[in-house]
Amino acid sequence: MPSSTSSVERLFSLMNNLCTTDRNRLSQDTLTALMMLCREGCQQLSDDQTSKIVEIFKKMKERDIAL
């Protein structure tokens, strides 16, 4: 059992920063992928994890507005 809840609290904080009222329609897969990228960084992810994240973003629908 962890002696501290700080790591869990950091994850919830990261999730709340990513999933805002303006971005409240993120799917679970997209939110998980963004959290992994933010938490681990691109260099720390395995090739398999990176490929899965890229596939998630490839499946996203086109947006009508330029970001």
Question: Could you walk me through the main structural features you see in this protein, from its secondary elements to its overall organization?
Answer:
This protein has three helices and no strands. α1 (6-18) crosses α2 (28-40). With 67 residues, the protein is mostly helical. Helices cover 57% and strands 0% of the residues. The termini are far apart. GO terms for molecular function: protein dimerization activity. Pfam families: Dimer_Tnp_hAT (PF05699). Residues 1-37 form the HAT C-terminal dimerisation domain.
Summarize the SSE layout with pairings.
Layout: H1 6-18, H2 28-40, H3 47-58
Helix pairs in contact: 1-2, 2-3
What attributes does this structure have?
about 70 residues; mainly alpha; 3 helices; flat
Helix content: 55-70%
Radius of gyration, in Å, reads 14 Å
Number of strands: 0
Shape: flat
Low-confidence stretches: none
Q: Which sequence of SSEs, written as H and E, runs from N to C?
A: HHH
The helix tally amounts to 3
Q: Distance N terminus to C terminus?
A: 43 Å
What structural class is derived from the secondary structure elements? mainly alpha
How much of the polypeptide forms β-strand, as a percent range? under 5%
**Mean of residue pLDDT values:** 80
Which sheet architecture does the biggest sheet show? none
GO molecular function: protein dimerization activity
InterPro entries: HATC_C_dom (IPR008906), RNaseH-like_sf (IPR012337)
Domain HAT C-terminal dimerisation: 1-37
Protein name: HAT C-terminal dimerisation domain-containing protein
